[in-house]
Amino acid sequence: MSTAMNFSSKSFAPRPPDKGAFPLDHFGECSAFKERFMACLRRSGYESAACRQSAMAYLECRMDRQLMANEPLEKLGFKDLINEKSEEKPEKS
Fold it and tell me: Minimal CA–CA distance to 78: which of 53, 48, 61?
């Protein structure tokens, strides 16, 4: 009796991540934003919800410098922060 298992009947096809691959920030273009985010996380006891503004700024930096694909911030979970920003700006009359 053979104890070897035959896995050839199932094939594994790897697939890329949903958002795709993105380049690393080799030149440190967004390192100041990353450091602000990390400092916020340390201050808040690693409670990421308290640092969403910093996270949004970091992702905006990465998108502006083509270090990740441009995505609407609403799609990345920042819709409520965008609404707050637009409410803070007084309307021109």
Answer: 53
Please report the beta strands in 1-93, taking only residues with DSSP state E, as ranges in sequence order.
Answer: none
Count CA atoms within 13 Å of residue 41 on its CB side. 10
Which tokens go with 31? 């390192």
Nearest to 65 by CA among 21, 27, 16: 27
Degrees (nearest 5) of the Cα angle 4, 8, 12?
125
- At 86, the pLDDT band (50, 70, 90 cuts) reads low
**What is the residue whose two structure tokens read 């199932």?**
10
- Report domain extents, the chain: 30-86
